[in-house]
Specification:
Layout: H1 11-21, H2 28-61
């Protein structure tokens, strides 16, 4: 079972999110899990892209590209 943590958010932000995304996500918690997972993946993708650029730059400097 996954451990859970409590998070405190402003009530007006929660209400706005529930109004806007309530029809897509069953609960505010589901919305937040989705958003946080997506942001985490995006960071990993950016890191991969940065690493790929670095490798390409090194290969260019060595004359392979």
């Amino acid at each position: 079972m996954t451990q859970m943590r409590d998070v405190q958010l402003p009530a007006d932000v929660c209400a706005a999110a529930e109004r806007k995304f309530g029809h897509v996500f069953g609960t505010l918690e589901e919305l937040l899990v989705f958003v946080l997972r997506d942001l985490s993946r995006d960071e990993a993708a950016r890191a991969d892209q940065a690493e790929q650029r670095l490798v390409e730059e090194r290969l260019r400097e060595l004359g392979y590209l």
